[in-house]
Structure formats: structure tokens, C-alpha cells
Specification:
Alpha-Beta Plaits, alpha+beta, 4-stranded antiparallel beta sheet, RraB-like_sf, RraB_dom, Regulator of ribonuclease activity B
Length: 133
């Protein structure tokens, strides 16, 4: 019996609740100015296009595979499998196609990743990049 069973929560296999999706999306978008400032300090201007590394988690291998296929359909480089840190989680990671490093464009990409992940019951855990591409 899990902790949440005590409180009456029914385990329906869902990994990302609507509330968690909303909170995580807000957190990711709120972090954007800091990350963009760091990129600007590395001489990455708004005209530059970079691939973005992404990270998602979910609770089943099937969900991770289905989502990886969806991202692959977007011409993203994707791999997925069991998380090294928690064998009960599955990670989906890879690199996007090139994205223009304008705040609004990256914000739109983040929103798209959060929403697409939620559609496949996967949590967007963040992104990164390197200017040396």
C-alpha cells in the first residue's frame, strides 16, 4: 500500500497530473531569462540557431518509447530507456532541430515541449545547449 493510498488517491498509472504540468511549465518558463542571460554572456546572440538538449521522465517503458517516436517525427535526435538514478523511471533525452536563440522563440519551444510531454504523460525536466555547435 503506497503513501497516497492512505489519503485515498487512486493509482491510475498517470505520471503527470494537470497540476504538476502547470507548475512545471511555469517553472521552466520562469527559468528562461537566467538561461538566456548565460547564453548572451557566452556571445550567443538572438540570430544564432542552436540545437537544444532536452530531458523528460515518465513511469513506463511504453510511454517513453511512444514519446521518443513522436519527438523523432519532429526530426529530433532521441534516445530513451531506464533512468540511471531511479530504475522505476524512464528517461527520454536528445537534441532538437536548430532553434533561434530569441527569448520568444525559445519560450515557445519550451511551451511546446511541456505540452507535448504532457500529451504523452511525460514530464519535461529541462533543457540545455552548448554554444560550440
Amino acid at each position: 500500500m503506497g503513501l497516497f493510498s492512505f489519503f485515498g488517491k487512486k493509482d491510475n498509472g498517470q505520471f503527470v497530473s494537470a497540476e504538476a504540468f502547470s507548475e512545471k511549465s511555469t517553472i521552466q518558463l520562469n527559468m528562461l531569462p537566467v538561461l538566456m542571460e548565460k547564453l548572451r554572456a557566452l556571445n550567443v546572440d538572438e540570430d544564432r540557431e542552436l540545437m537544444l538538449e532536452f530531458f523528460f521522465y515518465t513511469n513506463t517503458y511504453q510511454k517513453s518509447g511512444a514519446f521518443a517516436q513522436e519527438l523523432s517525427n519532429l526530426n529530433y535526435q532521441v534516445k530513451y530507456g531506464v533512468s540511471e538514478g531511479d530504475k522505476n523511471l524512464f528517461i527520454i533525452t536528445g537534441w532538437s532541430a536548430k532553434v533561434k536563440m530569441q527569448d520568444a522563440v525559445v519560450a515557445s519551444w519550451i511551451s511546446q515541449m511541456c505540452s507535448l510531454g504532457y500529451k504523452f504523460d511525460c514530464e519535461f525536466d529541462g533543457w540545455g545547449t552548448t554554444p560550440d555547435q
